[in-house]
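Students often ask why we bother encoding 3D structure as a string. The short answer is that it lets us treat folding as translation between two languages. Here is a chain of 99 residues written in the first language.
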Amino acid sequence: MRSLIKQINILGVSYTIEEVDTVNKTNPRRGEINYLTNEIKIDKNMPASLKEQVLMHEILHAVFDLIGLDKLSEDEKKVQSIATALHHVFSYNGPIFSS
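And here it is in the second language, the structure alphabet:
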């Protein structure tokens, strides 16, 4: 079983990634980002491919927030659509950048 990375640098900001049993006790959800603590929580009870897609979703929230696109970051449907598309592109094609 694949596991997610534990840390990611998004535009110079380091975020920790934690797989948890319950992401949010008040509002059920698959993933969540905390901009104050730089933490991303992902529900660990999902299949690996869904966890990856949810992580992409949370990464996009961070990117949009960091580049000042607050309205886009708050639009869950747009973030989800872009996350789904990017997850598919990167999953289907494997590494697309060489060092």
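Translate back mentally: The chain is about 40% helix and 20% strand. Keep this in mind for the problem set.
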